[in-house]
Design brief:
The chain is α+β, with helices and mostly antiparallel strands. The chain contains 13 helices and 31 strands. The strands form six sheets. Strands 14, 24, 25, 26, 27, 28, 29, 30 and 31 form a nine-stranded antiparallel beta sheet that branches. Belongs to the glycosyl hydrolase 35 family. Keywords: Glycosidase, Hydrolase. InterPro entries: B-gal_1-like, BetaGal1-like_ABD1, BetaGal_gal-bd, Galactose-bd-like_sf, GH, Gly_Hdrlase_35_cat, Glyco_hydro_35_CS, Glycoside_Hdrlase_35.
Amino acid sequence: MGEFRIGRGDFELDGRPVRLLSGALHYFRVHEAQWGHRLAMLRAMGLNCVETYVPWNLHEPRPGRYEDVAALGRFLDAARAAGLLAIVRPGPYICAEWENGGLPHWLTGRFGHRVRTRDPEYLAEVERWFRVLLPQVAERQYDRGGPVIMVQVENEYGSYGSDQVYLDRLARLIEECGVTAALCTSDGPEDHMLTGGSVPGVLATVNFGSRARAGFETLRRHRPAGPLMCMEFWCGWFGHWGAEPVVRDAADAAGALREILECGASVNLYMAHGGTNFAGWAGANRAGGLHDGPLQPDITSYDYDAPIDEYGRPTEKFWAFREVLAAYADGPLPELPPPPAVLGASCEAVLDEWAPLDAVLDALGDEEQVGGAPSSFEELGVDRGLVRYRVDVPGPRMPYPLSVRGLRDRALVYVDGNRAGVLTEDAPVLPEPVAGPARVELWVESLGRVNYGPRVGEPKGITGGVLHERQYLHGVAARGLRLGAFSMEGVEGVRFRSASGEGGVGLYRGSVSVVGPGDAGLSLTGVTRGFVWVNGFCLGRYWGVGPQTSLYVPGPLLRSGGNEVWVLEAEAAGEIRVRLE
């Protein structure tokens, strides 16, 4: 068995100095059948290590209900088979532009700002989760014949808090769960971040996209000894709905990478391959320097302008990085693996069935809850999806403005069955006053929970109340429609009708005939915002505001012949057309 250790100036592997040339690749953003190809692409770029986060909320959607926790272990086995070392960043908070920063909605709904602190009840939940998760990491450590050489404690904690007691307890907990691999932290190269986020006796690393020498100088003021490492070299960036895509020049990024390596440091490319925010797991940010401004939902693609694009193809940045990294390789770099299969011919889906949202809710929705004030998504147990709120305006009374306080994030409103408008957090008042008596329905959609900054964990739904003039309306009924309820078996229970001439919001179902299955892009016209499934697999959210105009369809999802397609339109639709190409 081998040995990996942190020396005074270098990492050491089996007694020899080693430079970690790592790349971020998240197993949960890549179809499992494509892990091998993407890992081989990392090797071909010149990397010797892969890094991944672990999203707690993906694997424990409800307290004590675990879903495919073993996926991490299978990914680490695939990394070993590809000849790569591995760094695991289990959180419990990960950021990652992922829903709620990876924290389960039921956890933040219960503890609020007690998360990410020494709070004993919160730490008890973390311990329970880590004792389920971390044994598979411990079993795959380098000294046991596996690829895992390092495990990270929390994530960029200095950007959030200063609870050193919490960080120390977290580090000890990781060790108690059988992890003997090296521990590390990662933070921005600023004094307050390093003092808030580092742990005595644990390797501190820094995250940045440029100015490596300045960043490492700051790190050295805090840690005079130990290997230098940029745990996140931001070689690209993520995108928001309604904003221009962010692109970084390949030569500029390669120059910044070269500077890191010239400093004698190790590096982790963030991202080497971004992948996709399938199934509505994309997070959101708050604008402004204090990350407390308007909501900025993340797009479904996590291409990240990475050197390996969303489809697994090498980009100009890939070749520029490969040239830089080749100078640090022990020998010639491996050739690229054969490219994935691509769709043999473009084709169009026929959506011939439609069900209104009420019918979908009747078949797939949770039990309705009625209370004085509206329940939040967290109180209803809804992680991703929509909630229908219903409330009566008493009467007789004259028309008054109807508004929603604490709306997160977007509501399609009906008054007595007639569409009355769309409300948002920044525009929470209906354009026309409402007279009583009247029945008001509000279909509220979460656009992604905040993944970074002081508002991580903020609740979704109607978090204040529904007001008529200045008076709260009470007796609000709420019923959740979770994305997780959309299974092949579940959708069979929906009462569909012919889609001919219907249009509007609701669930559309149809099929597409494929010749030559392979990777494809799915584009839609005649829609506003919603979600798409292919053969029961949720590709993620679409939204006409852009910049993303098509959704990535992994080739392994498709089969020759007929393939089932569902489109859940949440706001407005005309004649919908779905095309694979």
